[in-house]
Amino acid sequence: MRVKSQAELERLIAAGNRKTPPPTQNIGPRRILGVDTALRTTGFGLVDVDRNQLTAVDCGVIKTSRKAPLSECLRNLAGGIRELVENYAPDLAAVEGAFYCHNVHTAMILGTARGAVIATLAERSIPIYEYAPRKVKQSVCGYGNATKQQVAMLVSQFLNINVESLAADATDALALAICHAQGLAVSGGLAVPAPI
Questions:
Q1: Alpha-carbon span 78 to 39, nearest angstrom
Q2: What positions carry a catalytic annotation?
Q3: Which tens digits make up the pLDDT trace of 96-128?
Q4: Which of 6, 85, 149, 183 lies in the 20 to 30 Å Cα band around 24?
Q5: Which fold has domain 24-189?
Q6: With b meaning 16 or more CB within 10 Å and e meaning fewer, what string describes 135-145?
């Protein structure tokens, strides 16, 4: 677009100044629930964030028997998430986004489990943010192809906890919470994606 006169330029500047700036996140104290979804073993991690201070609250896995039918797995998963929400009252949740999978059946099962988690959180009006696995690894490790062991090691340093006895799914869930917390800290929350 070519501006032809000073008056037109001033009108465009004035119009641009009337736009409301993007909302910034309140980066005061928050409790973030990270969820690394799977059908049989879903990791969860709760992290309290206050400015630049991260504190691990709890983490673990929601397990379901390998012999349980799909409907029982989904009921158990939704019940586990519901219990976490009731016990810890998270302000928001970070979940792992969908990823490419060669096996269509596996992708559908993971999508169903993810849907159960998202529906349970949405039922409680908890804002849900989605992060690609590579984004989480990049955020926590500085490298998008980091191994689970590298992620766990850096999670232990961020949160000052011993992760040797924790399941990889639990440390991955903590990494999701850390990734979101880092997004909140950047430019007043401008690095945070829109909730899903």
A1: 11
A2: 36, 96, 169
A3: 987 667 888 888 889 999 999 999 999 999 999
A4: 85
A5: Nucleotidyltransferase; domain 5 (3.30.420)
A6: bbbbbbbeeee
